[in-house]
Protein 1
Amino acid sequence: MRAVLDVVLIVLQLYVYVIIASAILSWLVAFNVVNRYNDFVRSIWNLVTALTEPLLKPIRGVIPNFGGIDISPVILLLLIFFIQRVIEEYIYPNVF
């Protein structure tokens, strides 16, 4: 059972990196540092969007609109950090 929890923690940590990459890539596209018409950038954009949008879209539906600022990745990161902490502090020590 601990192996399953270890895998869950690793997947959550990898997802944190994907969310951060998504935010950085969206900034780079917004400030015209990279161009989405480039095939390599478009493939990375599609991958990151496909991985993050299923969890970010419901959060965007709940939080109010703050103009041009999207805080849904921050909320998702806080939720992931909370889940990781609950697993590490409460679930992991009680599993044999």
Protein 2
Amino acid sequence: MSDQTTIHEGYMEDSQGRLVPVNLVPELDQLKDTLVKELVSQAKTAQSALKEHKLNLLGELHAFQALAHEKYGAKLGGAKGNLSLTSYDGRVRVQVAIGESVAIDDEKLQAAKALIDECLKEWTSESGPELRALVHDAFRVDSEGRVSTRSILGLLRLEITDERWQRAMQAIRDGLRVDSSKSYVRFHQRTGPESKWEQISLEFAAL
């Protein structure tokens, strides 16, 4: 239902925002409309409950982490907020992982591209078509005008000693920043100490 459209009694809104008298809408379409909206409403309720459950889980885990640190001076988990807790019998565990999305500042990216273009222009035949294609693909923009950070970072692995290339790579490194960060909570179980860990999936499609 559109937020801007008022649905009068006896009418239904179609996919183009038009109000259609109910008696002109096929009965099967009316039943489908009711079913789909009810199922989506249930899904949104479940999503909201999962979000609240995740917040509660993170709250309890971080509270335990703080307790352990305060009482014993112990640091639990790994770097950047990662955390792994295993039950006393070693059969179940909870893990918190911090996923970060990395981006590169545009001005430093443009500076790097200018230096790289300068190198390629001077090297001409020495650079080879493969390197030119690699650089071209790395700086290719998508439909929203953004480059692939992964492709740009791939240039850092090239062993090129030219001073200008090295300055370009340093510009890329200096321009790296964490664009967003998200916490993931995962649950695992196993039948015994020698058994393989199996993830307890909370993903709807995997159930």
Protein 3
Amino acid sequence: MLKRKFLFLIYVLFFKNTPEDFRPYSLFFPNIRRWLVTHYLEECGKNLRVKKGAEISLNSTIGSDSELGSNSVIQANVEIGNNVIMGPDIKIYSRNHKYDRLDIPIQQQGKSYYKTKIGDDVWIGANVIITAGCNIGDHVIIAAGSVVTKDIPEWAIIGGVPAKVIKYRTETKK
């Protein structure tokens, strides 16, 4: 665990904000980002792409052929499947403030922790927020700017605030 924490620290301090892979001056930075993240994560598949500014907790997992979008923030206890693509500025949460007690400020009530899961073959558009404890099914498309507050079934195309099912990918075109 100490080695993983050290690699996470190196990533955040020195390599998190290095140039994108499509820039001619990116040199070897995308490969270093990928190497560091794959070695500090709890579990990581093959062929991970890590865009500039992406931050994922040590205690999260990600499958093969997936991508962490630019400036994404992914908290602990998040499980990301295979073949997941993300736009920029994604936020995936796994904790929330407690607010049940009325006799003390919310800030002093602590936090609740949840497992948040993203299935396989999911496309998450830019600026999406996925709240703590949500389960996103396989083959889902989440429209840019959506706020996901509940579980999403497989094959759904969702969008809005809060996100709702627009249609299913399995519906035939007319």
